Each structure stands twice: as structure tokens, then as C-alpha cells.
Amino acid sequence: MTWFMEYSADADLRIQALGRLILTDAPKVIPILRTIALEADNPGAARRAVFILAQSRDPEAQSTVVDVAKVGPETVRVAAVREIARFGGPEVGQELLDVYSLGNQPVKQQVVVSLGERSDTSSLFRIVQTENNDELRDAAILTLGRAGGRDQLRVLFARASKDARQAVIRGLFLARDEDGLIRIARQEKDEALKAEIISRLRLLGTPKAKEYLASLK
Q: pTM for the whole thing?
């Protein structure tokens, strides 16, 4: 493949050619695409290289995408996280958590989004439990709600600080967990939090929510 390393054509054409060659000569093409994907000087070409690697079913190609998500240039790392989320297999959640532990805020934000797209409530729950950054924690809580993590959100509310509880209430609302919100409202002593829960129940407007709200009058 020395000839290809010396190839002087436009980067787009080069990557297109590599995309065709990966089907027949993956062991030689993958290292070249890895080099391109890790180049900070040409993020556009790097992202295209990541895309080609991600489309391959070759385990080494997909492992390379995970590596890029961990150590590549920032914008390329974000693109790699998006691609990892489309992989199959039970190990994807852990791979995304590994990337999260090494990432800066934009990378972590994309990991949260990607876990939400996969409805991976277990991994989101782990992030919420360990994240010290309030913005990232709250984003993970809301994503957990959109992903339907009702049971996890109920557990979180019992353990969370007041600030985090506001986010958990919004998460339960996004999960349309009327039972969870009603249960919390019946037990909550903080008037501001209770008012927030009642407001969310009004917005839900389900028969059960309306029945509970009527009982307060």
C-alpha cells in the first residue's frame, strides 16, 4: 500500500477510494483510515474516515472508531461517538461510558445524546450517579426521562439534592410517569418542589393526574 500513501489526489477522492478498498483489503486500509481520522489539520476528512470505518462490519474498523472517540481531535471524537451509537451488540453501552470517562464536555454531551437514542437507561443512570458537573448531570437526567427510565428516576429523586430534584421532576414528566409524580407529590414537604410537580401533572392532563389534582381542592 506504499503507492497509496504517496497518492496525491484530492483528499475526498482518496477517502472514497479507501472506502471501496476496505471491502477487499481491510487489514491494510484500516490503519490508513485511522491515521486520517486522527489528523487534527483536516477535521472534514477525519470525520469522513470515521464514517467509512463505522460502516465496515470489520471488528478492527469498529474498534478503531472507539479509539478515535477516546483520543481523536474534539470534533472528530463527537462524530465518532455518533457512529458508535449505531453499532450493534451489548458492549456498546460500556464503550460509550468508557469514552465518557475520558471526554471533555462536548464529547460527554454527545455520549448522553447517543445513549438516549439507544434508550440505554442503565448507562444514563450510571452517569447521573457519578457526574459532578450540574449541567451534564441534569442533561443526563432529562435524557433518562425521554428514554423512559421511570424506575431509575424514582430512585434518583429519593437520593438527589434539591437542585437535582428539579431536573428529576422534569425527567419524570418527560417519561410521562404520572404515578411517580403523584407518589412524590404526596410525600414531598418542600412547597416549591411540590408546586413544580403539580404544575407538571397539570401539563400531563391524564385522567389519573386530573383525579389527583381534583383531590387537592
A: 0.89
